[in-house]
Amino acid sequence: MGAPQGQTDLPIPNGWFAIAWSNDLVKGGVQRARYFDREMVIFRTRAGDVHVLDAYCPHLGAHLGEGGRVKGDTIRCPFHGWHFGGDGVCTEIPYSKKPPPAKARVKSWPVLERNGFIFVWHHHREEEPTWEIPQLPEFSDPRWTEPRQFELKVPVHIQDMAENNCDPVHFSFVHGNFRGIDSEVMPSEEAHFFKALSRTTQETPLGTFETELERNTWGLGLVSVATKGIGDAGLMMLAATSPVDRTHTHSRWRFTVTEDMADHAGEDWIHAMSQGVMQDMRIWENKIHRAAPVLCEADTELAFFRKWVRQFYPDNGKRSAAARANGSEARA
Questions:
Q1: Which CATH number characterizes residue 174's domain?
Q2: Which residue from 35, 82, 207, 220 puts its CA 20 to 30 A from 193's CA?
């Protein structure tokens, strides 16, 4: 029996979040999506530009992602043929002689297409983006393999999933890595970003190496994990994780390795990473969210993360802080 669902006090955070794979949306393609507890439609124009709109037509409420068609640089409603541009404004009503009404518009979401993902910017006050997702060179470098893709859906708030990145101790007890992990967090001048480094010994077909696991985090929606220390070889995972709603999370991963590593250890590493997360599933599916966790002196990374993450919530997490002060516990 799983943990109680739908009782988390945590709101949906602000930031950039992936809502689709780039290679799943061809020119003229239309996709239905649901994230942030909102229905959306994603479409790629004939020129190749990606746009994301709120899903429901302001006319009579048809879902633009169910039968909507791309016409040039617009999407056409499947119900009465109203056309909407990438800015959400209705540009044409085919059976009307007058211009579309001023209210004939839907919300348009800020979009970035980077590293094989389509990201949108979510902000609870509809504020414009204050930072961007970087383009990582590994995903366009011919010395690196064609990326593999993996995805999973987890019935927890996105913060509970992201917290694993700052929990090196769980690798011993959940994933059986009892060699010990020397880990540290390195904050950045850019508030939305931090780096975490972990050092451990790894056995590979090429021998035993003292390796460094570098984890870069941009908001709650994107983490890169790179293994270094095996000669000049490189292994990279990019995890884009997004809130479907307050109690469900969708995570998409891309893996790439240097070509010289693919046959020796790349396949094993990709398999280990994609299967290892399944060991976390039993924890996530049956845990509650502790708004005021009891931490020990060794939980320094978790303490850092809990403070860092407040910036992505309304009022800098003050509402959740009030819940902690009242002794309440939010359940994920």
A1: 3.90.380.10
A2: 35
What would the pLDDT profile of 144-160 be if each residue is shown by its tens digit?
999 999 999 999 999 99
User: How many separate domains does the chain show?
Assistant: 2
The answer to the question of residue 258 being in a domain is: yes
With bands split at pLDDT 50, 70 and 90, how would you rate the model's confidence at 21? very high
Residue 80 maps to which CATH number?
Answer: 2.102.10.10
pTM of the model: 0.90
- For residue 328, the model assigns a pLDDT of 44
In terms of domains, do 234 and 97 share one? no
Task: Kindly indicate the confidence band of residue 178, based on its pLDDT and cuts at 50, 70 and 90.
Answer: low
Residue 21 falls inside a structural domain: yes
Give the pLDDT score at 235. 87
Residues for the chain: how many in total? 332
Asked, for residue 10, whether it belongs to a domain, the answer is: no
CA distances from residue 259 to 144, 163, 231, 274 in whole angstroms, order as listed: 5, 32, 13, 19
Query: Do 89 and 49 lie in a common domain?
Result: yes
> Which range of residues forms the domain containing residue 264?
137-307
